[in-house]
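Batch job 17 of 40 flagged for manual review because the log was empty.
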Amino acid sequence: MIRTTKFRMFAWTLCLALTAVQASVLLAQAPAAVRFPGTVTAINGTTLSVKTDAGEVRLVLVPETAVLKQVAPGERDLSKAETIQLSGLAAGDRVLVRLDPKATEGSVALQIIAIKQADLAKKQEADQLDWQHRGVGGLVKSVDQATGVIVITSGAGSSAKTITIHTTAATVLKRYAPASVRFDEAKAAPLSAVKVGDQIKARGNKSADGTELTAEETVSGSFRNIAGQVISVDAAALTLTVKDLATKKPATIKFTSESQLKKLPEMMSTRLAAMLKGEGAGFAGRGGAGAPGGMQGGGAPGGMRGGPGGPGGGGFDPQMMLSRAPAIQLTDLKKGDAVMMVATDGVSDLTAITLLAGVEPLLEAPAASNLLSNWSMSSGGGEAGQ
């Protein structure tokens, strides 16, 4: 069964440590040896079962002479590490294992640097809130390499805004890996990697009106928007084939446990389409002008899935509506259903990030083409993302 995920934040740990940066710094501080980061899956006596970040499961013997240290998530200085015992480790903890090069049989630990799962959860929650309160996200409209300025469009319909993101030499720039929206798999990339049409999230200090942001961190990626009708559903293979209205050709999309599926109720879809076409007066309700009654509130920690949304402010918020739409399973879809989705970009091997069903009225609204642009990428955290 496909596990749908909550609309979050960016969703999506912001830091499923060890992060690449943290791991690289800690690795550099340790003497050269065979070493790898991973997650403890089981402990049997003095033997750890560790699933490496490469997907391999390794059994590591931990002798009494091994040095075990515990660090806080994001900490890059081993001098601040706390010495622990093997009994202090548990399944789910993140570890950086350095093997003894002199061992003649099996994998024997020389040093283990650990981050507790509970500490990660706290860090993730704090990061999610930070992305929610100090983050923005949308589609890249322009990139100025000389000044480091990225202009994006965020939202759709009456809530659409233009936001200017200022990057500096201190800004951490990341790029999602191909066929992935996991923040922990994002790699460092130069500003030149960001292209017009990309989706991007950034967090930092916003201007008072929310139209400018000085970025401390950004994550971007190229994704494909698909709208069309379902041709077939293969529940066993976890794939969906649709007729892409843009290309007029069939497209087969794979689904994973991280794919998010929602369905708009008919009335909500009709009203949303009217608003996007400028025909509706909006919903009345406590959520403010344009916010559907009963749907006001904190929403997700991010406009893009798991990440920050557009700047705050009243008015019609399509992303909030989408976040509160009922979740569905792949098996709930049938031939002829109209769907809109965001998938990893590519000619083949497309993987669904977000799918929205019940969108027949929306296909007639031009502004709906950007409806999912803030609701697709993981900035970490997560249920989906992680």
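Reviewer: the log was empty due to a logging misconfiguration, but the result itself is present. The mean pLDDT is 77. Unflagging and moving on to job 18.
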